[in-house]
Structures are given as C-alpha cells and as structure tokens.
C-alpha cells in the first residue's frame, strides 16, 4: 500500500465512521475538505439505502453544496433552523486539548459558524493531523477583506507571525474564498496560547476570521494504519 493510498483509506474510514453516528431526523453540519467529502458520500449512501431518514444538511462551503446535491442530501440554511444537532468536519491540526487549526480549504469562516453552533461537533482526521502544539506543521489561515490585506499582514508581523498571501493554481492570483475574500497563511514559531491568539487576530481591522478553533470540539475520530491496515 503506498503512503498516498493509506492516507486516503484512513480518510474514507473515518468519514464513514462519523457518518454512521448521524441519527435519522438530524440537522447536520457538513464540513469541507477531502475527509468531510467521504463523510458526505457515506451519508448519501445511508440515505439511499433507507437506513437513514429525514436528515437535512447545512454546508460550510460551495464544495459542500455541490457534494451534498450529488449525494442526495437535502439542504437548509441557518435562517430556517434554530439549532444544528451534529456537525462533522475535517481539520489540518489537532492538539491534545482537541483545539484545531482549520482552513486548508479556505472555508474556516463558514466552518466556524456551523461547527460552533452544533450540539455535537465531531472532527475527522487521519493520524498525520495530530500535533503536540498547534502551528507545528501547518500555517494558520486568516481570511481577510481584500483591500486590507497589506495592513493586516503588517499587523501580523508585529505579532511575531510570518504572513504570506495564499496564491491559487500556478500563482495566477490570490485564492478567493466563498465570501470573495483573500486568505493569509501565517507561520508562528509557537502557538502557546490559542485562546488569546484567536481573539487577537480577529481584532485586527480587516480580518474576518482565523482558523483557530478552540474549545468547540466534542470528539475527534482518528484514522490510523495498524499492521498495514487502516482503522479508526
Ligand atoms: C477546510 C478545512 C478542512 O477541513 C481541512 O483543510 C482538512 O482537509 P482534508 O480533510 O482534505 O485534509 O478546514 O477549510
């Protein structure tokens, strides 16, 4: 099994394991990314088989809208419901306190809204996402209103971060979020206090939301490979 195949299989298994926890009649927050995509596909299969009934999804990205429609999951909006029963989403890093870095898919603003509203928030990751300290392997994404990206980058430098504007395919231009904004990816030498850093970054004028998710996760399901076989 190649390394690539193992990671994909871990994501698939963990996505399915999370989808299996969704009960009929639930309002479900649908995360973004390759692991969440397996979860959405798995929910669609359960619906098609009749094992799962009457769920309605709230997506966190345009990618989620497309996938949910493709897999026959009815969608609603936050205007039409007063709660979310369960949200399932991927992450880029998970620390021992279950705090996260998200936003590798530039969807962290909507994800933070939906995941944070859910009665139960389940994170689905492969084992490569587990870290001792946030920021050790992944840059921290910060969504920023386009006209403010230069002053925001300077403000982030003053905080000790090394910011870079996220560029799209072939670096033809900046990545644009579903809200029409840019993403700045920031290297911090160490994120010792994610609670404080989340607030400090969001206080910079022009910042919409950053990818630190603190004190919101209820459960993390981790896909692993043991003895050459993927498991959750
Ligand atoms: C998107 C996210 C994703 O959930 C995160 O990047 C993980 O993605 P993947 O499951 O593809 O590794 O935060 O904004």
Topology:
Blueprint: H1 3-19, E1 27-30, H2 34-49, E2 56-59, H3 62-70, E3 84-89, E4 93-94, E5 100-101, H4 108-117, E6 118-126, E7 140-144, H5 149-158, E8 162-165, E9 182-187, H6 194-202, E10 207-210, E11 212-213, E12 219-226, E13 229-231
Parallel strand pairs: 1-2, 1-3, 3-6, 6-12
Antiparallel strand pairs: 4-5, 5-11, 7-9, 7-10, 8-9, 12-13
Helix pairs in contact: 1-2
The structure holds ribulose-5-phosphate.
Ribulose-5-phosphate (5RP) binds next to α2 and α4.
Describe this structure as you would to a colleague.
- With 232 residues, this protein is of the alpha/beta class.
- The chain has helices at residues 3-19, 34-49, 62-70, 108-117, 149-158, 194-202, and strands spanning 27-30, 56-59, 84-89, 93-94, 100-101, 118-126, 140-144, 162-165, 182-187, 207-210, 212-213, 219-226, 229-231.
- The strands form three sheets. Strands 2-1-3-6-12-13 form a six-stranded mixed β-sheet.
- β12 and β13 (229-231) form a beta hairpin.
- The mean pLDDT is 95.
- The protein binds ribulose-5-phosphate.
- Ribulose-5-phosphate (5RP) is lined by residues 31-36, 89-92, 102-108, 111.
- The site of ribulose-5-phosphate has 18 residues, from α2 and α4.
Bound molecules: ribulose-5-phosphate
Largest sheet: 6 strands, mixed
**Distance between the first and last residues' Cα:** 17 Å
**SS elements, strand count:** 13
Structural class: alpha/beta
User: Low-confidence stretches at least 5 residues in length (pLDDT < 50)?
Assistant: none
In round numbers, the mean pLDDT is: 95
Pathway: Carbohydrate degradation; pentose phosphate pathway; D-ribose 5-phosphate from D-ribulose 5-phosphate (non-oxidative stage): step 1/1
Family: Belongs to the ribose 5-phosphate isomerase family.
Active site: 111 (proton acceptor)
Binding site for substrate: 32-35, 89-92, 102-105, 129
């Amino acid at each position: 099994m190649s390394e690539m195949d193992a990671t994909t299989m871990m994501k698939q298994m963990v996505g399915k394991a999370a989808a299996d926890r969704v009960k009929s009649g639930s309002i479900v927050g649908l995360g973004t990314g390759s692991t969440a995509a397996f979860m959405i596909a798995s929910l669609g299969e359960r619906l098609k088989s009749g094992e799962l009934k009457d769920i309605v999804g709230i997506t966190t990205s345009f990618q989620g809208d497309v996938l949910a429609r493709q897999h026959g999951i009815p969608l609603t909006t936050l205007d039409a419901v007063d709660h979310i029963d369960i949200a399932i989403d991927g992450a880029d890093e998970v620390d021992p306190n279950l705090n996260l870095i998200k936003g590798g898919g530039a969807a962290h603003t909507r994800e933070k809204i939906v995941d944070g509203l859910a009665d139960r928030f389940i994170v689905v990751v492969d084992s490569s996402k587990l870290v001792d300290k946030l920021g050790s392997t992944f840059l921290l994404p910060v969504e920023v209103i386009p006209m403010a990206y230069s002053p925001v980058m300077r403000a982030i430098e003053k905080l000790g971060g090394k910011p870079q504007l996220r560029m799209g395919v072939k670096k033809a231009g900046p990545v644009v979020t579903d809200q029409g904004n840019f993403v700045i990816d920031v290297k911090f030498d160490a994120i010792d206090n994610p609670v404080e850093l989340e607030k400090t970054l969001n206080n910079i004028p022009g910042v919409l939301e950053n990818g630190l998710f603190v004190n919101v996760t209820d459960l993390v399901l981790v896909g692993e490979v043991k003895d050459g076989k993927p498991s959750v």
